[in-house]
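testing teh design pipeline on a random one, pls ignore if ur not involved
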């Protein structure tokens, strides 16, 4: 199944899907990161777009901020993450089903063409000041 034509998609949805397609293999952006990149909407709006229209783009690269895999799609997503080499954290014994989480510090992409080292430059701090680095007009 191919992606819908531009005429069939709301303009915001098309923009969200374009961002999802930019994320390199092995990297992720959160729903909030995508909204910040676009300079409009928020995590819920991005999540809604991905839920309704994201099947034809690399949906597994747009994730929750806590790195938890998308409920109901964990195994499909996990297959993509392993194939692409996305950094994962092993689940603790108490975690439901022992499903790993995405290692957000290492996997998060800031939108730079060089792939970057994560939104915070690899320092380990998840501060908002690095989240949309290099994108004019999206941050103060």
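output:
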């Amino acid at each position: 199944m191919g992606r819908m034509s531009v005429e069939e998609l709301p303009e915001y949805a098309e923009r969200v899907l374009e961002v999802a397609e930019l994320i390199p293999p092995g990297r992720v952006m959160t729903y909030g990161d995508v909204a910040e990149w676009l300079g409009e909407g928020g995590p819920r709006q991005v999540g809604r777009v991905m839920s309704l229209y994201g099947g034809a783009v690399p949906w597994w690269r747009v994730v929750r901020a806590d790195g938890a895999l998308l409920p109901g799609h964990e195994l499909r997503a996990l297959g993509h993450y392993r194939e692409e080499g996305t950094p994962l954290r092993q689940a603790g014994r108490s975690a439901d089903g022992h499903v790993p989480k995405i290692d957000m510090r290492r996997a998060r992409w800031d939108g730079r063409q060089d792939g970057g080292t994560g939104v915070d430059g690899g320092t380990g701090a998840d501060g908002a000041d690095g989240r949309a680095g290099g994108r004019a007009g999206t941050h103060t």
